[in-house]
Write a structure and sequence with these properties.
6 helices, seven-stranded parallel beta sheet, globular
């Protein structure tokens, strides 16, 4: 596993961004999140050590732009260089998430075709409105490896009509003292949809405010992923 953040900074795009950890972290440091800039690790996948070997070792998954959005408009002048680095490293798998799937076709390189074999795209949705908007687009896009990320999930949603061709659905709640609650019934509902359509399912994170069997719990941020794993419902 490797992290690759060629730029930093983002802007809130929809309801799921309300308590975004990037904005919270930047606020504590006095950083303007709305200022999107290239980072010092822009060319990380193609950097070599003194022996001439790639520093980012073959066989890894490179998690791309997890502190921003790979399709954000401000990065249009730089994205082409990133696609070129992904072409140069077919020995790596690249994964990025986006709330801007409507921009996808105007952001891909000329040789994209049906998609690069080493690139997985995760479309993020948080409620039914965004699921219908984004997943109806995702369904038609030429992408070899598609994931759906329901995180933070802020209401019960039905994504079953959009699961054809999807490899993985990830579900998680919101982590913030003011977070909107995550109801376990919503999680189980998504799991059943995935089982019916033979799609892998992963419960990644409980919410700070978590409802199970009608009872409300408040969980520490450090326990959110651990409690999700303890549920043992991944399939």
């Amino acid at each position: 596993m490797a992290m690759w953040n060629p730029w930093r900074g983002c802007r809130r795009h929809s309801e799921g961004c309300k308590f975004c950890y990037i904005h919270k972290g930047d606020g504590k440091r006095g950083v303007d999140t709305g200022n999107i800039v290239r980072t010092a690790q822009f060319d990380a996948p193609v950097r070599r050590d003194k022996a001439g070997n790639y520093k980012m070792k073959p066989g890894q998954t490179a998690y791309l732009c997890f502190s921003t959005d790979f399709l954000i408009e401000d990065a249009d002048p730089w994205r082409g260089e990133c696609w070129e680095m992904m072409r140069r490293r077919p020995d790596l798998s690249f994964l990025f998430l986006t709330k801007r799937i409507e921009r996808f076709m105007q952001c891909v390189p000329a040789d994209w075709g049906e998609g690069y074999e080493n690139v997985t795209v995760g479309c993020t949705v948080e409620n039914q409105k965004r699921a219908d908007e984004r997943l109806s687009l995702l369904r038609e896009l030429p992408i070899r490896h598609k994931n759906i990320i329901c995180q933070p999930l802020i209401e019960r949603i039905d994504i079953e009509p959009y699961l054809s061709g999807v490899e993985l659905v990830v579900v998680g709640g919101e982590s913030d003292r003011q977070a909107r609650p995550l109801d376990y019934e919503w999680v189980l509902g998504l799991r059943e949809q995935c089982i019916r359509q033979d799609v892998r399912f992963e419960f990644r994170q409980c919410g700070t405010h978590f409802i199970k069997d009608g009872k409300a719990y408040t969980l520490a941020v450090r326990d959110l992923c651990k409690q999700a794993r303890k549920a043992n419902i991944n399939c």
